[in-house]
Amino acid sequence: MTTQPETATSEAQPSRAVPNQPPAAAAASNKPSGFAATDVLVNEFADGPDTVDKAVASPDELQPHAELGLKDDEYDRIRQILDRRPTASELAMYSIMWSEHCSYKSSKVHLRQFGEKTPPNTRMLAGIGENAGVVQISDKIAVTFKVESHNHPSYVEPYQGAATGVGGIVRDILAMGARPIAVMDPLRFGAADHPDTARVLPGVVAGIGGYGNCLGLPNIGGEIVFDPTYQGNPLVNALSIGVLPVERLQKKEATGTGNIVVLLGARTGRDGIGGVSVLASATFDEEAEQRRPSVQVGDPFMEKLLIESCLELYDAGLVSGIQDLGGAGLTCALTETAAAAGTGMRVWLERVPLREASMSPTEILASESQERMLLIVTPENLAAVLKVAEKWGVWATAIGEVTPAGADGTPGRLVISWNDHVVVDVPPGSLADDGPVYARPLREPADLILLQADRAETLPRPSTGDELRETVLKMIASPNLCDKSWVTEQYDRYVLGNTVLAQPEDSGVLRIDEETGLGVALSVDGNGRYARLDPYEGARLALAEAYRNVAVTGAEPIAVTDCLNFGSPEDPAVMWQFAEAVRGLADGCLQLGTPVTGGNVSFYNQTGAAAIHPTPVVGVLGIFDDVARRIPMGFPAPAKAGGDLLFLLGETRNELSGSEWAWVTHGHLGGKPPKVDLAAEQALGALMGRASKAGLVSAAHDLSDGGLAQVLVESCLRHNVGAKVTLPEDGSTAFVHLFSESAGRAVVAVPRGHDKAFLALAAEFGVPVTPIGVTAEEQTLQIQDQFTIGLDELRTAWSATLKNLFGGPAETASADGEGRSVTLELTERN
Amino acid sequence: MRIGVVTFPGSLDDGDAARAARIAGAEAVRLWHGDPDLHGVDAVVLPGGFSYGDYLRCGAIARFAPVMESIIDAARGGLPVLGICNGFQVLCEAHLLPGALTRNQHLHFRNRDQWLKVEATNTAWTNQFTPGQEILIPVKNGEGCFVADQKTLDSLEAEGRVIARYVRGNPNGSQRDIAGITNEAGNVVGIMPHPEHAVEALTGPSLDGLGFFTSVLRALAGSSADGQLAGGQQR
């Protein structure tokens, strides 16, 4: 039932051919059992579908371009390109491909900086514009990684929105020729105690777990942030990383006239129609509930089979080109593969295996059904491809073929028919590459000057030991700083057996090669409050934090991916924030020598006039020559009497604006975010890399949200090891030392005997070092002259919050009916 | 010694089980769900995962796979078989072990490092432990709550067929804190936590999982030496 071996080679047609019916035998063999006969479909339309012929004959017919999200001038341009009105299918395709989500029409002019400011590097094998960036990490091995948003679907339907977010990014990784090996999820929700957060968060977490766990990918890190700014606009970003032998790198070009276009994976249904144009490219209103059908439904089991079959196909050398189907479905995959090669393509839509027989050609082209890939294969390889698909129980169907470019060297055309009706005849590049580009107006938000003037450094502060003690307990129990294991325990972090470090560690660390110990570290970070106060510095701070998180584990940071979450680009204030953030990130990456390899933009995270805080989320990839030397965050049980020595690296300044302390204790956001010194970050990173290689450090933890107090609590609680800390007497108050969020800092534990070597190394790299105490046998965190808190009391305060908020029975979602039927069909085969 | 590891569509920890077998000193042999040939392996591991998606009852479809027909026959003849997580569910569905694994009581998937107390050590897979030994092994499942009727539970206890119980917290609501059981002959063992994820210091919380794999090697060495069935005495 799964494969329909047949060749379409006999129907090679010139690119602008009038419709040509595929041989009856081929058409029949394309129909899976239970699929309705063709003529039934045709009868559903009184006059058949809108065709190219009809479009030529009825130039003045009114078309719903505005309803599909196309502006008047965009519609006029389509008519100009085609020299006629578009057919209904073409109109839908242009509306999808020219949507903000697919065309990057508002962001393109800014994103160019990532290319223009790329630091010199020899590792990047594929970059922006590909499905995901690919970075070489040894002579033979490369990794590919990317972060993407699935914000809008996850608000409408939390479980499926988040689940298919994981599925989508994993297919991007797969399309590059890589085996996906892990996922991470940076998440942002509204206020922790808001009723809608109780609806969204459990569903999102269950969806990420349900999909990723079933796919067999360890979840190794991410973020969970609460802020009222995300009320109604939660951010569900998903990152995946994969590994490939360098020579297995795949490309998406549909090259080779006569090559066969094969659709692999799940059947096509009505789910997700309008996902990118309706959901992701407009602002929400009260009708969000009605948009549920625009959310795709995931089947992780099918995706697992898709992964295994694609990898088998790559290894056998059977694939000439490949592209995943995600947002914009077949429309995007067909136009992008053809446009990338400059070839044409002839597609017979009635061959696409459907879940619902009554789907119209427009629906088939727009469907965002999950777990599908588009392959370009040579005619002689087709039988072998279908055999591999059959082994894994995955549908594989030849739906078209590659046609030549024009005789005059012009690109070929994409011609799509449906039961003899030519419904599409377009230049594929006009959809994939030549969408509208806008240089939208920018204007600094009117309130920014006042906001920056309202500094948190002037807020009333705790000063006595008792007040500081109470502040620590209050801070660690706050939703952003508390224990996240209620969430992360729902994710499998062990599967595949190569997870060296996972949350709550600073970075996820994976072993890549069991023989050599070659490995990678990954961290994703962002701080919307900092970016609200200063988007340029906020983006650089996100980059600095992710870079530091990777560096403190001992890895060498080498590359960046980003997910840029913003409000409506039609608001000049939002567009200014976006432009500033991109400029900051591009400048920062240039200075750190870590190129942006790919990423994603999510606009329209906005309810009414209120946009979210600008939230650039930055992922940094680092490498280890031997992952055995990774440095964990938890203080180890004291091996020698007197414990390990604790040092604070970096400079602490009086920086509290935008801090977690200002927010938790005063509900305050104002002032300017902490200073960024990327040269200092590089020095810290270089020091940690050398210290790791020399084995001088037993634990290291990056300082960020919540400052030193948070780091001490987390490092103590990791293995239940106490600490005695003496804050430096340098003129700053104990409060500033404990809660400042100055960047470029880390706490390290150094075993006695290694301290001289470590201090010498720090001096060599010019990293300021302050001794702050020792790890201790006593089960307490003791801040000399200020306060002492038992580890039990810390743990109780730290670990209760999420359980109390979300501890009830989880929102659960059963597998969808489609998934079940696929399973049963597979069973029959076995 | 050759330990077979079955791959069903949707198996996820199959590579990890094979790695654990290798680390223990065995040769790992990959077995395919659609192939009834066991390729002469000396023991079999049914790994964790979501066989066939587990959209029906977990393991309910896998028990009908061609490879399972051979394994069920061989297990009845004394072949050592270890079912981990989804493999345990398959063994219950195949009626090689009593009881069933149902949805965790708290309804969440849960992944944590879990303490277990080993009880029966006279099986093919646990003879390298001492009774009462506490071991630390990752648990990760959504449907790991072991249930059986009272009579079955009583007889499992009376016959010493509980191989391990959860201690310091029950992660899924399993009756009588049962984490793993064996059949009467001691050659078939099912366990919900994942010993294959506790075999390397770099990636696991302990090395305690290795004992399951070295146990079967010892059982096999013993049985080939004295001509008995692997897995200990018939009751």
From TrEMBL, chain A:
InterPro entries in the cross-refs: PRibForGlyAmidine_synth_PurL (IPR010074), PurL_linker (IPR041609), PurM-like_C_dom (IPR010918), PurM-like_C_sf (IPR036676), PurM-like_N (IPR016188), PurM-like_N_sf (IPR036921)
Catalytic residues (positions): 101, 150 (proton acceptor)
Subcellular compartments: Cytoplasm
Residues involved in substrate binding: 149-152, 171, 296, 368-370, 602
Single Gene Ontology MF annotation: magnesium ion binding
Region entry Disordered, spans: 1-32
Catalysed reactions, as listed in the record: N(2)-formyl-N(1)-(5-phospho-beta-D-ribosyl)glycinamide + L-glutamine + ATP + H2O = 2-formamido-N(1)-(5-O-phospho-beta-D-ribosyl)acetamidine + L-glutamate + ADP + phosphate + H(+)
Residues of the Phosphoribosylformylglycinamidine synthase linker domain: 63-105
Gene Ontology CC annotation, any one: cytoplasm
Residue spans of biased composition, Low complexity class: 17-32
Residues involved in Mg(2+) 1 binding: 148, 600
Signal peptide feature range: none
Functional summary from the UniProt entry: Part of the phosphoribosylformylglycinamidine synthase complex involved in the purines biosynthetic pathway. Catalyzes the ATP-dependent conversion of formylglycinamide ribonucleotide (FGAR) and glutamine to yield formylglycinamidine ribonucleotide (FGAM) and glutamate. The FGAM synthase complex is composed of three subunits. PurQ produces an ammonia molecule by converting glutamine to glutamate. PurL transfers the ammonia molecule to FGAR to form FGAM in an ATP-dependent manner.
The protein's assembly and partners: Monomer. Part of the FGAM synthase complex composed of 1 PurL, 1 PurQ and 2 PurS subunits.
Protein name: Phosphoribosylformylglycinamidine synthase subunit PurL
Organism for this UniProt entry: Actinoplanes lutulentus
From TrEMBL, chain B:
Pathway participation: Purine metabolism; IMP biosynthesis via de novo pathway; 5-amino-1-(5-phospho-D-ribosyl)imidazole from N(2)-formyl-N(1)-(5-phospho-D-ribosyl)glycinamide: step 1/2
GO BP annotations listed: 'de novo' IMP biosynthetic process
Broad class of where this protein is predominantly found: cytoplasm
UniProt subcellular location: Cytoplasm
Any Gene Ontology CC annotation: cytoplasm
EC number: 6.3.5.3, 3.5.1.2
Catalytic activity annotation: N(2)-formyl-N(1)-(5-phospho-beta-D-ribosyl)glycinamide + L-glutamine + ATP + H2O = 2-formamido-N(1)-(5-O-phospho-beta-D-ribosyl)acetamidine + L-glutamate + ADP + phosphate + H(+); L-glutamine + H2O = L-glutamate + NH4(+)
Keyword field contains ATP-binding: yes
Gene Ontology MF, one: phosphoribosylformylglycinamidine synthase activity
Sorted UniProt keywords: ATP-binding, Cytoplasm, Glutamine amidotransferase, Hydrolase, Ligase, Nucleotide-binding, Purine biosynthesis
Name listed for the protein in its UniProt record: Phosphoribosylformylglycinamidine synthase subunit PurQ
Keyword Hydrolase part of the UniProt annotation: yes
Domain of life: Bacteria
Active site per database record: 85, 194, 196
Subunit structure: Part of the FGAM synthase complex composed of 1 PurL, 1 PurQ and 2 PurS subunits.
Pfam families to which the protein is assigned, alphabetical: GATase_5
Summary of the function given for this chain in its UniProt record: Part of the phosphoribosylformylglycinamidine synthase complex involved in the purines biosynthetic pathway. Catalyzes the ATP-dependent conversion of formylglycinamide ribonucleotide (FGAR) and glutamine to yield formylglycinamidine ribonucleotide (FGAM) and glutamate. The FGAM synthase complex is composed of three subunits. PurQ produces an ammonia molecule by converting glutamine to glutamate. PurL transfers the ammonia molecule to FGAR to form FGAM in an ATP-dependent manner.
